[in-house]
Amino acid sequence: MSRTQFLRRLAPALTLTIVLAACGGAADEDDTATDDAVEQSDDDTSDDETDADTEASDEQADASEDGGATFPVTVIHDGGEVTLDEAPDTIVSLSPTGTEILFAIGAGDQVVAVDSFSYFPEEAPVTDLSAFDPNVEAILAYEPDLVIASGDSNDLVAGLEAVDVPVLLYGAANDFETAFAQFRALGDATGNDAGSVVEQIEADLQAAADSVEVEPGLTYFHELSPDLFSATSATFIGEIYGLFDMVNIADEADADASGYPQLSAEYIVDADPDWVFLADTICCEVTPETFGQREAFTTMTAVEQGRVVGLSDDTTSRWGPRMVDFAEAVAAALAG
What we know:
It contains 12 helices and 10 strands. The protein is of the alpha/beta class and 336 residues long. The protein has a domain at 200-335: Rossmann fold, CATH 3.40.50.1980. The strands form 3 sheets. Strands 4-3-5-6 form a 4-stranded parallel sheet. The longest helix is centred in the first third of the chain and has 18 residues, at 49-66. It is elongated, with a radius of gyration of 21 Å.
């Protein structure tokens, strides 16, 4: 499997666009998602326009902080900014992580169609729409007044803007801060409260970290695919393990700073990590048993001590609400 094929296979699981990350890919650091801050227009005129603008700005900051901004609202996204005059009634999501976030913040009733990889939560209206090869005509069949996507393939944005359908692009989040900014931005865009959801996720992540006492400095290898692609500490995936003060063996192998290096078996054996976490159990049917049966790995410490753990490809690759499931799975493994 080539690096390009690997990244394309993993991307759907990560989208809003980790096109390069755990089950996904390396997101460009310039592809950061929106900050909480959004700008709101003020149609009211007054004798003192400066004071009016200041007041509107303050109100918008409060709305963004709490989630669920008032309208009209201008939301910043990876492609620039979009002004929405009112809360959208018909949303099409071409991003699995975006879909999960929308439902988590209470916008599920506004979602009329999602792409073929957006199969969580169960009530998501899955269609055959493609996030990789979007078809503007097929999307317009659902009469959306807002589209969420992870990238601008096939001139998606231009095609939809030509018929006055706004598009919000959100790429992969490589850290919690960026992920939570995306939650808040989507809350603002849909008129929903994302702030309380973010606070709960933060509390749950901390609870997972506090639930187990771990010796600091334990090393680990996170396997994205059987051909030994991994994720470094400079990714959302690595930040989850950072909650437990673990050391990532892939960090020193990331020569091009992609965040997703391909390691060699010799490198992994030489590093001899304390733990191995498998994020290819669904896509590639890898299990702790089959991992341990690979000729090069039979004598690894993690294999001999039963410290090879199978994880869900999806929860380890999406930085939405199920990041808590990822952290809790790691905590459970470490607790024995």
